[in-house]
Design a protein that fits this description.
This protein has six helices and 14 strands. It is α+β, with helices and mostly antiparallel strands and 357 residues long. The protein folds into two domains: 4-160, 3-Layer(aba) Sandwich (Aminopeptidase), CATH 3.40.630; 163-330 and 337-356, Aminopeptidase. It starts with 21 loop residues before the first strand and ends in a 21-residue tail after the last strand.
Length: 357
């Protein structure tokens, strides 16, 4: 997609009479430093509070999407808010559909509850309507009460409970990494079949066909993608995963760990997403082989953790509990807006796209 600086039709919006005076416009690359500073002010108000470091490129978090837009709220003294959306092709009830995902809502602490989030939300909604999506959804971290209230006030409803499972690679039992073999572009059709079979009946799967999966893999190669791997059993491909090291894009620091799970004190975590992830049975073997591969590549004291987002009712993921994972809960909010024969989602489990986290 074109860079923000190349986009046309910028939207300017001036707030009402209540201070602070600000306008909403489309973000540009020149906003990068100010957005990184704004992000550092925003501790995630959740059951497990956390901060993020997105340097050096705030927009790298959006680049895995084929289509996205970001808007900022700008006051006289600088940027005070940001919000973004992405448009994706997904599966809903087994049919291809267009989904708009709202994310990255940030408002400077000193100007919250003064209409900044609403103004940015209005800009996003106006642009999203012009794209005619079938559904719109967002994710809200567990315990983030203000954000829950905000998205519900905008017409979204809670649909599914999800979790980001963080698994320390040092705590995963040893496996033989030699069982793995690198997969190439020619393997993508078999990979997509395995991914879709492992997530049958789940909505929002962003890989409706082999081409969409291949495009995603190419997009994330410059953002930490370490390779695609698989293993065989019973005469065919039994499981596969990509190792997407999210560290170059965003590092996480957990401020108050839950239970016995504790990262190194004062140290950022580099998340490694298993994307794509396909398996027969459950995800346990993929976790063991991925951890073995990472131990081989990075060593035991790397600070890397496996990160697997999921619907809590999705089949095949209960095996993650045996690895002592830390589960960061969230809620999937959504609204059906028509199109594609009136498709609706929310009654079935959803696929949680690692790019959305």
């Amino acid at each position: 997609m074109p860079s923000p600086a190349d986009r046309t039709g910028e939207m300017d919006r001036v707030s009402g009479s209540a201070p602070p005076a600000f306008r909403v416009r489309e973000a540009t690359p020149a906003d990068n430093a100010a957005l990184l500073a704004l992000d550092r002010q925003c501790v995630m108000a959740a059951a497990t509070p956390m901060t993020f470091d997105r340097s050096p490129d705030f927009f790298a978090r959006s680049r895995p999407y084929a289509y996205w837009r970001a808007y900022v709220a700008e006051a006289d003294h600088g940027l005070i808010g940001v919000a973004a959306m992405a448009l994706k092709r997904v599966l809903i009830a087994g049919k291809a559909a267009r989904a708009a995902y709202f994310y990255d809502l940030r408002v400077a602490p000193e100007v919250r509850r003064l209409g900044v989030a609403k103004a940015m939300g209005d800009a996003l909604r106006a642009h999203t309507r012009s794209l005619s999506p079938d559904v719109v959804y967002s994710l809200v971290v567990e315990g983030n009460v203000p954000s829950h209230g905000f998205v519900e006030s905008r017409g979204s409803r809670p649909l599914r409970s999800g979790a980001l499972s963080l698994i320390s690679i040092e705590r995963v039992p040893a496996a033989e990494p030699a069982r793995l073999r690198p997969l190439e572009a020619a393997d993508v059709p078999r990979v997509i079949s395995l991914v879709q079979a492992a997530h049958t009946g789940q909505d929002l799967l962003p890989f409706p066909d082999a081409a969409s999966l291949a495009e995603r893999i190419e997009r994330v190669r410059e953002f930490g993608f370490r390779g695609l791997y698989g293993w065989d059993a019973g005469g065919g491909l039994a499981g596969c995963f990509g190792l997407w090291d999210y560290g170059p894009t965003m590092r996480m620091r957990i401020l108050r760990p839950a239970g016995e799970w504790a990262p190194p004190a004062g140290r950022d975590l580099s998340l490694v997403f298993l994307m794509p992830l396909g398996f027969r049975g459950d995800a346990g073997q993929a976790v063991r082989l991925a951890a073995a591969r990472l131990r081989q590549e990075l060593g035991m004291s790397s600070g890397h953790v496996l990160a697997i987002p999921r619907d809590v009712e999705a089949p095949g993921y209960a095996a993650l509990d045996r690895f002592g994972s830390l589960d960061l809960g969230f809620t999937v909010f959504g609204v059906n807006v028509g199109g594609s024969g009136g498709l609706s989602f929310g009654t079935r489990p959803v696929f949680v796209d690692p790019a959305d986290l």
